[in-house]
Fold this sequence. Notes:
The complex is a heterodimer of chains A (338) and B (374).
Chain A: E1 2-6, H1 7-21, E2 25-29, H2 55-58, E3 63-65, H3 70-82, E4 86-93, H4 101-108, H5 111-114, E5 124-129, H6 144-148, E6 154-156, H7 161-173, E7 178-183, E8 190-194, E9 206-209, E10 214-218, H8 222-235, E11 240-244, E12 247-249, H9 253-263, E13 266-270, H10 278-289, E14 299-302, H11 315-318, H12 322-333
Helix pairs in contact in A: 1-7, 3-4, 8-12, 9-10
Chain B: E1 6-9, E2 19-25, E3 32-33, E4 38-43, E5 48-52, E6 57-62, E7 69-71, E8 75-80, H1 86-102, E9 112-118, E10 121-128, E11 134-138, H2 149-155, E12 160-164, H3 181-194, E13 200-205, H4 207-218, E14 223-229, H5 240-248, H6 252-259, H7 271-282, H8 286-297, E15 298-299, E16 302-303, H9 308-312, E17 318-323, H10 335-338, E18 343-346, H11 353-356, H12 358-369
Parallel strand pairs in B: 11-12, 11-13, 13-14, 14-17, 17-18
Antiparallel strand pairs in B: 1-8, 2-4, 2-7, 3-6, 4-5, 6-8, 9-10, 10-12, 15-16
Helix pairs in contact in B: 2-12, 3-4, 5-6, 5-8, 6-7
InterPro entries (chain B): AB_hydrolase_1 (IPR000073), AB_hydrolase_fold (IPR029058), AB_hydrolase_sf (IPR050266), Biotin_lipoyl (IPR000089), Single_hybrid_motif (IPR011053)
GO molecular function (chain B): transferase activity
Domain Lipoyl-binding (chain B): 5-80
Amino acid sequence: MARTISYREAINEALTQEMERDSSVIVMGEDNAGGAGGSGEQDAWGGVLGVTKGLYHKFPGRVLDTPISESAFIGAAIGAATRGQRPVAELMFIDFMGVCFDQIFNQAAKFRYMFGGKAVTPVVIRTMYGAGLNAAAQHSQSLYPLFTHIPGLKVVLPSNAYEAKGLMTQAVRDDDPVIFCEHKALYDTTADVPEDSYTIPFGEANVVRDGEDVTIVALGRMVHVAEEAAGELATSGISADVLDLRTTSPLDDETILESVASTGRLVVVDESNPRCNVATDVSALVAREAFSSLRAPIEMVTAPHTPVPFSDALEPLYIPDAQRVVNAVKTVMGGQNA
Amino acid sequence: MNEAIKTVVMPKWGLSMSSGKITDWLAGVGDEVADGDELADIDTDKIAGTLESADAGILRAIVAKAGEDVPVGATIALIAPAEVAEDEIEQAAEQAREEIESGAVEEVTGPMTGAVEVGGRTISYATLGTGEETVVLVHGYGGDKNSWLFVQEPLSATRTVHALDLPGHGESTKDVGDGSLETLATTVRGFLDALGIERAHLVGHSLGGAVVTAVAATEPARVASLTLVAPAGFGEQVNAEYLRGFAAATSRRELKPHLTQLFADPQQVTRQLADDLMKFKRLDGVDQVLNTLLGTLLDGDRPGIDAVPELTRVRAPLAVVWGRADRVLPPDNAEQLAARTAVSYIDGAGHMVHMEQPNAVVRAVESVAGTPEG
Lengths: 338, 374
């Protein structure tokens, strides 16, 4: 039965159901339970924003609070994955990934390849990304392009609660390392989510809105921005095909190209910084594979090439919003309505 | 309000419908309308349908214009005999208009959902209406209780109408055991037991048609009438490619071309319909369910079910409805049934007659179930 639950609850439910289904699934990270080593309440936290709350008592011994040492516990999770566990490690903010790049880029991502396909590393690294909560430059970045760049990693960005549950279930069952990027501004958003377990396959973009005039490719939180823009564009007679990439690696080239082939125009909306990001990647793909379909130059709507500002006057200007997407669409439409 | 004034309200077609958009009025103010006449085309987020009149008289006022999106239960038009004074009509229309604008529309109760344990599985169902007589609707392969959205409502005016989810479908347990017709028929019998239904009018579509035929054959005393909508188990033709394609599709893009096979008008395949089906197909266990049932439905490229022997044991009054444009189980299959009863061939309907031409299905059910006083 589908009921309305939040993005946070959807991820928690996926983890709960996978832990029930498979005893090799474990959860670890900073304050994933909370209270360890102190005299206070156990499971006081459930992770910094409460996503894993409740798992500690349901699955004794399978929710591990770790020291504040990302390189150590991400390394431990990857090691456990190579030895038959299915760890889901929470690395609080994607901004902190830098301290464990070796474990992720050079170890986890390489094992399958370097051991001739004989090694599997079924680890999921959950992490929070994105601006919008005034968390300043070191806690607000959208660094998923870095992981998208590395062969051997799968990179997932659920855009709503339904997507989050199905993609998390798939991530846990997947035999490759998965970087699971949760936007911190989406945790309280809700959607209809089935109670039963389900999986959403990786590498399959979701067409969230059908349109004829322009293709808007978006991901994560930007899907909502794109949808808002598409709604506004519809009132001025412009119909937009809106694609939610769901995963940046693997990338669903086919759906992007098919859409651009029919609309002839492309706007990519990406919250990350503009150099070597998903917007440039998708734009390059379309420029190379669908150049003859294009009726206008491609537009990219991204954050600027600056750190995320802390100032609450500047942060909203940094994050791509619906108005910027509308303007970009009007640019590719060349002032015409079709 | 003068009792002679009858209100036409926005119907609730299915569990999730909260509002509907009138795309076109098919009758105009001043037109004489009879019970069953088409009044308006209405778009829901799932599918477009045609609202039929439940009353006879003159369409005196249209409250909600074409293009308007109004909540379920809102009065959208008024029907009254000619002798009702114009100012009374105006007053009633004004009141209805105010209700729409102020959002004071009384919420219409949609189907009540429930679940019962049958043979170790949870069977989910939706019930509408409180009439003495009971109707049970059984969907087909890959369908669910919501596929009856346009049929359940009109039938429920004077009857209690249950639409169930077969094992493996909708919100029922995603397990069909051996997937045999007998297993499914046993479940439907168990469902009647679990709800304490002694006697019911059974309606089945496609695979569900074969299932209710098997139930009617084994429980003659409990089946008051039988309505088969493009039933499986009769004739020699089946679109095996559709069935296999439906089972195998793993994305909306793969699924959509198969779904267009289901309808006479491919426009009926909305993104919502395809999305909902993909959401179903992604659930754990559904893949196995669909593949197991494929083994029941197909014998190579031929039909795998033969319900003819069951039909010979059916004593209940029988109605059969078939879409002329059915590309899944072509209407030629009805020949064996034509020997038993007059088959209603429906124009403008493919395999999903109950979604494309629901009123034809309602009329077929009523032709054998009668119309109890409401």
